[in-house]
Amino acid sequence: MSIVLYWHPMSSATPIASALVELGIPHERVTLDLQAGDQRKPEFLALNPNGKVPTMVVDGNPMFETLAIHFWLAGQYGVERGLWPKEGTPERMQALSWATWAYVTYGTLLVRLHVATQGDAALRSEVHAAAARSGLDQLLALLDARLAAQPWMLGADYSLVDLIVGSVLGYSVYVGAPVAAHTHVQAWLTRVQARPSMQLKAD
Asked: The whole model's pTM is what?
């Protein structure tokens, strides 16, 4: 199987690059120069009309959207490598739930915080930023309670759920989410970020 990942370092494509390394999947990585506008070239838009990374091409067939690619990789390779629960198990249900929680529930508030603090000047608002931080704090408290009872997202062992959720939370630290205020979350995130698959450098 031929896999090509179009990415840019320190972007939403980085978690996919890390997942490919974690899974040990042979692949080609193509770095787009986003400042130069590589993502708007016709040949790239033919693969992803959104003009964004990540875009992954499998045997000539393109995929886009980070979470969709995560789920495809997990289902295709993760089960046999012991990094994703089997179909039909309670653990698979939890894996899908928490991964989606990170990108949708947590991610929505994260976008609000980013816009309120780093967006266009007309959209910045300390009132909205404070509300977003409060919402993120409540979500982090839920995660903290889970990680107080077990070392990893699904229990005793590391899985791709840790990579997926950890990638979103790691980015959220830079945006200003109060991750450090939650002891178990912070300790878990440190362990996730220490894995070799997370130490990616530009090609």
From this structure: 0.95
